[in-house]
Each structure stands twice: as C-alpha cells, then as structure tokens.
Amino acid sequence: MMNPTHLTAVAERCFNITQSYLSIDTGSLMNSKIIEETQAAINITRELLIGNIFQRWDPFTGQISFSYNGGKDCQVLLIIYLSCLWEFFMAGIKDSQYHPKYHGLPIERLPTVYIDQKDTFRTLQDFLEGNINHYSLSLYESRKDCDIPMADAFSIFLDSHPETKAIVIGVRHTDPFGEALQAIQPTDSSWPQFIRLQPLLHWTLANIWSFLLYSGEEMCGLYSLGFTSLGSVSATVANPYLEWNDEDSQRLQNKFKWEIANNYHKDGKLHISHINEEDLSILTSHDGTLTKFYPGWYLINDSYERAGRFPKKA
Ligand code: FAD
Ligand code: MG
Question: Does 197 contact ligand 1 (Cβ within 6 A)?
Fold first, then answer.
C-alpha cells in the first residue's frame, strides 16, 4: 500500500470537475444546447480513453505521453484525461480490501512533453510553468536553443524516452488538415513512428470554452485579451473578429455567462493567468493606442478561430 501522491489528488479534482459538468441539469437553462453537446462530447472522449486507449496502452508505465503546451485545447483534454485516469484507477481497485483513500495512483506525475519553440508568448510560458505543479506533470521540455521542426524534436524526445508508444494530442477536426484525422492512428511517414491518440477531434470551439470556463481552472491570460489560437509571437495577433469599437459595442455576446456564474468553484469568477507586460505591447496599434478586443470566448465560430494567426511560411 502506497501513500496517495499529489497526482492522485489532482486526478480526483479533475474527476469531480468533469462529473460536475456532466451532471448540469440543462432542462431549466435558457441556453442549454452548447452544454448538452459538450456533455455528449465528453462522453465520447471518456469512452475512447477508458474503453479503448487505456485497455491497449498502460497509462501508468510511461507507454503513453501527453503533448502539452498550455493552450486551451490540450488543457481541456488534460482535465478530462486526468478525470478518466482517476476513474480507470478506481475501477481497478474496487475489489480491494482497503478503503480507496489509502490507495494512490501508481505514478507521481503525468508524463508530458513540450516542444519549446522559439518566440513563444511569455504569458503562455509562465502559465505552463505553473501547470507543472497544478496538474502534477513530469514535463519533458525540448531544448529551446535549437530551432528544428516539431517532428525532429519528437524524435529527440523518443531517443531519451524509448518506453513511449503513444502520444496524446489535443488536435480537433476543425484545425488545419484535421478533417481526416482519426482518434487512434500512427504518425505519418515523415514523422518518427508512434501512435497518435486524438480523443478531442469531435470537439467544437464552443464546447472548449463552455467546459473550460465552467471548470474554474485558471486558463492562459491571453484568451481574455481576444486571442483564440496561440502561435508564435511574431505570427499571432488578437482575433480581428473580436476587435471592439464604440459604434457597435453590442455586436458580440458572451454565450458562457451561465458557465462563469455557476462555475465549479461556485465563486462566479473568471480564472485567468497573469499577463506578461511584454505581451501587452502586441495589442498596441501603430498610432500607439491600445486596441480593445472582446475576450476570446466571445467567438464560437470554428472557421474564424485562427483568424489572428498568419499563415506559416512555406
Ligand atoms: P494547436 O491547437 O496549437 O495544437 C494542437 C495540439 O498539438 C495541442 O493541443 C497539443 O496537444 C499539441 N501541441 C501543439 N504545440 C505543441 C508544443 N509546442 N509542444 C507539445 N505539444 C504541442 N503532423 C503531421 O502532419 N503528421 C503527423 O504524423 C503528426 N504527428 C504529430 C504528433 C504529435 C505528438 C504532435 C504534437 C503533433 C503532430 N503533428 C503531425 C502536427 C499536428 O498535426 C499539428 O500541426 C501540431 O500539433 C501544431 O498544432 P497547431 O499549432 O496547428 O494547433
Ligand atoms: Mg488548438
């Protein structure tokens, strides 16, 4: 019998958040469609993880690693992944003679991998650093000083972590080239060989905002400034569809007022990480004034999610 680890408490918290979201009674709500769709989306992800993925790759041995950069999609997936880890573990010990509180997950930290690309927002980096303890991550960080393609960075990761058979990715069908992806599939031939686990493909942008705002978990502060997708500093601006002007100040509405007001902590507050001062300068236009934007979650149209990102150079 082991002492419960920090990861045990983290996984239980994520399980409680997820259960709380799943038990929202939408019957009495005005705007219930997004929440109902998100509850269905969670259940599909949960079934994939517990019913399929964890049966094939042992999540407690390092066979599975989680690709994580602090962005909203992988954060949502991380919370649900940890929730499922808790459920999977509890199912495994249900016949044990000891009370569940004396058991702990057999790993101290969750194996995660971050490819530290040049030119990352400081706010995102600071948020990620805080997540290491908040989610009990064992975070592999690639070397920052070598500017190499992501595939090569994963190759180097695998050299030092040969036990890795599969990597979880928070990609969605609406991402570029995401349409034809499958929940479980090998990498392309130009990538190092491992299995891609993509249990978030079917989630929409509205599903992501709804769950993340309800969770009451701190999210990266850049989203509150009108960012909806985070690439490199030099190739990302706040989403132009969210620009605020006095003339049509009612143009966009917050569809997630209920989630914020009734969040998991029941404190009615937004939980946003600290914004680094350097990053604020990006919102300053050429005439030196600070341009105002609605928060990222005012945008729920998936086809405009990346409107603030410049296309990658060929
Ligand atoms: P985002 O929404 O920013 O990222 C999507 C997801 O990618 C995130 O949720 C996160 O899980 C992961 N991710 C993004 N950036 C990082 C980072 N810096 N460090 C760690 N994880 C990150 N493309 C192919 O064409 N063929 C492949 O076989 C292939 N295999 C991949 C395997 C892995 C493990 C990963 C992470 C990516 C792979 N990709 C592959 C690339 C992938 O399809 C996306 O293009 C890439 O993740 C960049 O995402 P984005 O910026 O477009 O979107
Ligand atoms: Mg994304």
Answer: no
In contact, 209 and 256? CB cutoff 8 Å:
yes
- 3-state SS, one letter per residue, for 99-117: CHHHCCCCCCCEEEEECCC
More confident residue, 118 or 71: 71
CA distance linking residue 148 with residue 146, whole number of Å: 6
Mean per-residue pLDDT, 148-170: 96
Q: In this predicted model, what pLDDT tens digit does every residue of 254-263 receive, in sequence order?
A: 999 999 999 9
Q: Is the CB of 167 under 6 A from ligand 1?
A: yes
Atom of ligand 1 nearest to the CA of 67: 21
Supply the pLDDT for residue 94.
Answer: 79
Please provide the distance, in angstroms rounded to a whole number, between the alpha carbons at the two ends of the chain.
Answer: 55
> Which ligand minimizes its atom distance to the CA of 178?
1
Task: Check residue 314 and give its pLDDT.
Answer: 44
| Residue nearest to ligand 1 atom 33, measured at CA | 169
CA of 171 to the centre of ligand 1 (A): 7
pTM here is 0.96
Task: Please say whether the beta carbons of 109 and 85 come within 8 A.
Answer: no
In this structure, what token pair is assigned to residue 245?
Answer: 């002007």
